[in-house]
Design goal:
Length: 425
């Protein structure tokens, strides 16, 4: 074989090896991309291996595994009348009559000596906006710093018990010490509730506390969390008890609250008679106005309907909005053609108002409310009916009517996950 042929054979073999290596690398890259895609999808829900076998438990020893724990701030005076606050998690209602609260403190804490001497304390319940003060009060000692001075919080002297409360905290419980018990590492103080003071802003008309507006804080695992998601009224789930074995559904354990709300949103068409507050509606509208918008035109306006006769009129005219006869409130999402400007002809206002509408629906789900999208635009007869009933100006085009209220629980979320609708490129 001459030299040139031999070199050609060697070159051909080298090219073949290179092609095979490139093909293998491309195949590995494709597998990696598929794996990454799978990981991305799987990350939507938490399904660790330890959860695959239902009820499989592991002993973790003696721990204070009561979750969640309250995160509340105790107010007290020292012997000289200096006000102090400390954060407590070892606290809870311990008796009904007389209504009493138990709080446990270590002897090393400054408040331990204060409460022992003053025979009184206050329980100050924070909202999530006050979490920095809750954390501060729990990290530093009143022996070393004046916590009211350092935080800027305002101590108010109770006129009922010998203890200060915090002006800025939405709920204050004034307690008179009745007894205490030395349990070991902690002394448990029992305080009889003398009075409860609540900011009017978070009270319902019947003087019950609106938990959604309070946004209480709980402690667990070294972290603070905000609570308030509505699950069910007391007693309304009893009928669901059927004596059948419980099987946990790990597919509904979501990685975070945002995903939980998205997947649990449902079209609610059955409402109770419970009223929705103005504050709740404003929360929904703030969520709507947080939606993305083309060129930041924000081409939306919102009409809030609470009058019974108007709700009924809309229900009569809109063929798929009969739930308005039950709903206590409705939000009408409109496009403002003056704000949309030259983008109105391209229909961007529809996309923007649709995004705002979806935000409202998700916010309603997160607050324990129910809502459903009922179309107005692009149906001429429905758009005309809504415009006439609400006496809308010509530049306000109604995209939809969203009935809002407290759900009866009859409407359930649907599983719309269909992998066949996905094409990976």
């Amino acid at each position: 074989m001459d030299k040139s042929k031999f070199l050609n054979i060697i070159l051909a073999i080298a090219v073949l090896v290179l092609v095979i290596q490139l093909m293998q690398k491309e195949d590995e890259s494709l597998k990696q991309n598929k794996s990454n895609a799978s990981i991305m999808v799987d990350s939507l829900t938490r399904t660790p291996d330890s959860l695959v076998v239902p009820f499989k438990k592991k002993s973790i020893g003696v721990r204070s595994a009561i979750y969640p724990k309250p995160a509340m701030v105790i107010g007290s005076y020292n012997e000289a009348g200096k006000p102090n606050i400390m954060t407590a998690a070892w606290i809870g209602v311990c008796n009904s009559d007389p209504l009493s609260i138990a709080v446990s403190m270590r002897p090393a804490t400054y408040s331990y000596g204060n409460v022992t001497h003053s025979k009184a304390f206050t329980v100050n319940i924070p909202s999530s906006e006050l979490i920095k003060y809750v954390d501060y009060a729990g990290r530093l000692s009143g022996k070393d710093v004046n916590k009211f001075k350092e935080t800027g919080l305002t101590p108010i002297k109770s006129n009922l018990v010998n203890a200060p409360y915090i002006k800025e905290f939405p709920i204050v419980i004034e307690c008179e010490l009745t007894e205490y018990y030395d349990l070991g590492s902690h002394r448990q103080f029992i305080g009889k509730v003398i009075d409860v003071k609540v900011d009017e802003a978070i009270l319902k008309p019947d003087d019950r506390i609106d938990v959604n507006l309070l946004k209480p804080v709980v402690y667990g695992g070294g972290n603070y969390y905000e609570t308030g998601r509505f699950l069910a009224k007391v007693g309304e789930s009893i009928d669901e008890i059927d004596g059948q074995p419980f099987v946990p559904d790990y597919s509904k354990i979501y990685a975070n609250d945002a995903l939980r709300v998205i997947h649990n949103r449902k079209s609610v068409r059955h409402f109770t008679e419970q009223l929705v507050s103005k504050e709740q509606i404003e929360t929904l509208l703030k969520a709507g106005m947080a939606a993305p918008t083309a060129a930041n035109r924000q081409p939306w306006v919102f009409y809030v309907v609470t009058q019974r006769t108007v709700l009924d009129s809309l229900g009569e005219q809109l063929p798929y909005a009969k739930m308005l006869f039950q709903a206590q409130t409705a939000i009408v999402v409109c496009g403002d053609m003056d704000k949309a400007g030259n983008l109105a002809d391209k229909g961007y206002w529809v996309q923007d108002c649709a995004a705002a509408s979806e935000n409202i629906l998700l916010a309603a789900e997160s607050m324990g409310l129910g809502a459903v999208w009922t179309a107005s635009y692009p149906y001429d007869d429905r758009t005309k009916a809504v415009t006439q009933i609400l006496n809308l100006p010509k530049n306000h085009v109604p995209l939809n009517v969203i009935p809002v209220g407290y759900p009866t629980g009859e409407d359930l979320p649907k599983n719309k996950w269909k992998p066949e609708n996905i094409f990976w490129r």
